Amino acid sequence: MKIAPSILSANFANLLEDVKKIEKDADLLHIDVMDGHFVPNITIGPVVVKSLRKFFSLPFDVHLMIENPDLYIEEFANSGADIITVHQEACIHLHRTIQKIKGYGKKAGVSLNPATSLETLKYILQDVDMVLIMTVNPGFGGQKFIDSMLKKIEELNKLRETLKLDFKIEVDGGINIHNVKEVVRAGADIIVAGSAIFDSSNPAQTIKEFREAIEK
Ligand code: DX5
Ligand code: ZN
Fold first, then answer.
1. What ipTM, to 2 d.p.?
2. What is residue 22's three-state secondary structure?
3. Is-above-0.95 flag for pTM?
């Protein structure tokens, strides 16, 4: 099980120092890119990813919550993203978009909003490295985990077994030390957590507590 702290809840005026706090304990750095169209919030672009890349070697997990992601894949790839995840809902030609990400030598992920069915991924699962299940409606940190998504994670996990595929399952939104075990038990390989980590008084210690909570 891997932990990907989301910098959405970090202090953007002190981003370098905040990421340093979790650098040694995190497995990936989750970077939320929002365009004010696909989601009602605006965050960061490739220049920030590029700036951070100079200071950190941990894998950058870039979650694109933007319309027309094809237009920006090259820039994010060149900025130092390791995994680029697009939303199924934002891609008219999802297969082409996934191939484009892979064409830059990056891992390709696809994400589903809470109300979007797993069925929509039926013909792309074999092509992706990761599926990101949103457990809140994307746009903001600090929202409540939508409990009915546990079933969706379980179903995806079963589907992966049935189809004998090896994509990773990442889960994002509303995860904390109290519900993380259930999320992992349902089938998550990668846990994203923003507010639970960066709003805590000791982010590195909180990551350790996440790992302990899973082992309990
Ligand atoms: C929400 C983002 C998440 C967010 C999670 O749209 O995709 O990555 O940062 O934040 P928490 O963990 O606070 O729900
Ligand atoms: Zn995210």
1. 0.99
2. helix
3. yes
